[in-house]
Specification:
Structural class: alpha+beta
Number of strands: 8
CATH class of one domain: Alpha Beta
Organism: Actinomadura logoneensis
GO molecular function, one term: acyltransferase activity, transferring groups other than amino-acyl groups
Number of helices: 6
Protein name: N-acetyltransferase
Keywords: Transferase
Length: 191
């Protein structure tokens, strides 16, 4: 079955950036910032060495959801759009297939504080709602990852849940977690 991202014309430009589908050739460029301690601290999967990262990166199920953020031809980050089915009762389950997505992002810390992540995530939201017709987007992070939840708020996502010490961090122990979401009908104000 064809992935919904395959139906779009890539690359997609923003004001300063270029978003495109990830390819195996992006392995080294993404490893350059994924391995950094400032980035590595908040990633869901700790990839300790290049060989482990290569194996994980090259999995088809990883590449299919991954987009690359370029600035003047240089890879400065990546985005994930993991399309999912919504929860539904059995009788209407078909209508809930592939209607929402989880968002994710990783930005090279050297490019932080310049609005690139905000610009890229806004473009991703626009793609999800206006080009793919999704109805709902969500993202999660540790409460301690302030850069991530502040980004969610900057792009207009709504905090839906603050859980108390339900999220286990590999070095920090049990931390609070946050969930944010945005509906398609809430997005037009961000055109």
């Amino acid at each position: 079955m064809r992935h919904p991202l395959d139906t779009l014309d890539w690359p997609i430009p923003t004001e300063r950036l270029l978003l495109r589908r990830a390819t195996p050739d992006d392995l080294d460029a993404t490893w350059a910032f994924w391995k950094l301690p400032a980035t590595h601290e908040w990633l869901t999967v700790a990839t300790e060495n290049y060989d482990d990262y290569r194996e994980r990166f090259l999995r088809e199920e990883r590449l299919v959801d991954l987009l690359i953020i370029e600035l003047d031809g240089r890879v400065i980050g990546d985005l994930a759009l993991m399309i999912q089915d919504a929860w539904a009762q059995h009788e209407v389950a078909e209508q809930a297939k592939g209607v929402q997505a989880e968002l994710g992002w990783t930005l090279d810390p050297a490019y932080g504080g310049k609005g690139y992540a905000t610009e890229a995530v806004r473009a991703l939201i626009d793609i999800a709602f206006k080009r793919l017709g999704l109805r709902r987007l969500h993202a999660e992070c540790f409460y301690d990852n302030k850069a991530s939840w502040r980004l969610m708020e900057r792009v207009g996502m709504r905090r839906e849940q603050h859980t108390v010490r339900d999220s286990l961090h590999r070095t920090k122990g049990w931390l609070d977690g946050l969930s944010y979401a945005l509906l398609a009908e809430e997005w037009p104000t961000h055109e």
